[in-house]
Amino acid sequence: LSKTFESRLPLAVYLAGAAGAVALSFVFVLVRDLRSGPPPAAGRRVRVPGLVRNGLRAIGVVALAWIVAQGILGGGSDAEVSRLFAWTYGWIGVPIVSAFAFPIWLWLNPFATLHDLGARAMRAAGIGGIAPAPYPERLGHWPAAIAFAAIVWLELVVAGGGSQTLAQVITGYTIFTLAMMAQYGRRAWLEHGEVFSVWFGLIGRMAPLAAIPGDDRAVRRRDFATGLREGGWSVSDIVIVGLATGSILFDGLSQTKIWVDAVGLPAALPQTLILAVFMGLIVAAALVVARLVGVDATAAGLLPISVGYLVAHYFAWLVKDGQRIVIAISDPLQQGANLFGTAFYEATDAFLPAGLVWTIQLAAVVGGHMIGAWAGHVVAAGRAGRQGALAAREIRIRQVPLAVVMVGLTTLTLWSLGQALFIPAS
């Protein structure tokens, strides 16, 4: 970011208040032993208009083609769209929409659209397809978890990559994804192995509109965050959510002046090792908690925290960097054009009140932890209730370490948001 958004109250006051709020929320859910009935099996089905579905599909394919075209032609200006589409819109904007609104990736996904167009062309040409192989159940979401770790490395170590680098990576990933859909079937690979579909699907458990498996023409209504209680979580899901949470924390901490003064600006290999250790500690902590309170409870508790961190750390960047689409439209191929007179527009965040940004950050972090405390306890309590009163008491005691971890993470992330950022010399 170009500046640090500061609170009007001393940072220590915010930290103490936020940590206290998270701690008290845990005390409340544990002491009261909040319970909840099973989530509804299905909500009211809502049909998505064809114009919306097809419009999103077109946007996804155009965005992918645009990235590849710029990667081939080169260039290096603010009109570059690979980082804009992949990181700003894809890695920040799509998850926020997926968490708070509806499963937008279901139609925006260019890989699925290309697969469908290819299958339709083959049918029209009278070419029969080969029956897909069954997806190995033991793989679960592990292919997506591995791909997620690779994306985190690309983002935080390679610094996002330039236009040509990202275009090459995205082109290669597109070919790989199409091959895997041909091998295991479209739905099987998207639900288990394709990293974006898996990650956005996990985030979509919070949304009030949920995807319907096997039906891309409609969504179903449900109360916000009730999808966290629907079960079906796996260890690989915890790893993915842990990687997401850790990567956001690492990104925030590594940009602070305190971190740079202590660690410096390491080269790729040392930075990779530092990142691996940091991420390993976060994921290991999540897996230890999962051993104590269960996989479903841990995943349901950790996911809202990750979403809260995403909003807190990247909301202002999304608003600012997202404006570059105005530049890209005027110079779509980075050849110095100025088709609409906006090629020299300068993105700015000056219109964002500092108090508003800090309030959003605080609400996102604390709100994510509170929802996580509720969801994790409700899922754990439901599991314990089926095992008897003694098990219920034991599960409640086992959640105390999780509460301590949540308070610590709240303090750490808000502290990092309040630190001076390192600005490299130009």
- Indicate the radius of gyration in whole angstroms: 22 Å
Major β-sheet, in short? 3 strands, antiparallel
- Taken in chain order, the helices and strands follow as HEHHHHHHHHEEHHHHHHH
Number of helices: 16
Structural class estimated from helices and strands? mainly alpha
Which regions contain 5 or more consecutive residues with pLDDT less than 50? none
**Tally of strands:** 3
Query: Beta-strand level of the residues, as a percent range?
Result: under 5%
* Percent of residues in helices: 55-70%
Overall, the morphology is globular
Q: Kindly, what is the distance between the CA atoms of the first and last residues, rounded to a whole number of angstroms? A: 15 Å
In brief, what are we looking at here?
The protein has 426 residues and is mostly helical. It contains 16 helices and 3 strands. The chain starts with 10 loop residues before the first helix and ends in a 9-residue tail after the last helix.
Describe the structure.
There is one protein chain. The protein is mainly alpha-helical. The protein contains 16 helices and 3 strands. Strands 1-3-2 form a 3-stranded antiparallel sheet, with no helix packed on it. A hairpin with a 2-residue loop joins β2 and β3 (215-221). α6 packs parallel to α10 (235-254). The model has no long low-confidence stretch (mean pLDDT 85).
Which descriptors apply to this entry?
426 residues; globular; mainly alpha; 3 strands; three-stranded antiparallel sheet
Which SSEs are present, and which pair or pack?
Layout: H1 11-31, E1 45-47, H2 50-73, H3 82-100, H4 105-108, H5 110-124, H6 142-156, H7 163-184, H8 186-192, H9 195-203, E2 209-212, E3 215-221, H10 235-254, H11 257-263, H12 268-293, H13 295-321, H14 325-330, H15 354-385, H16 389-417
Antiparallel strand pairs: 1-3, 2-3
Helix pairs in contact: 1-15, 1-16, 2-5, 2-7, 3-9, 3-13, 5-7, 6-9, 6-10, 7-8, 10-12, 10-13, 12-13, 13-15, 15-16
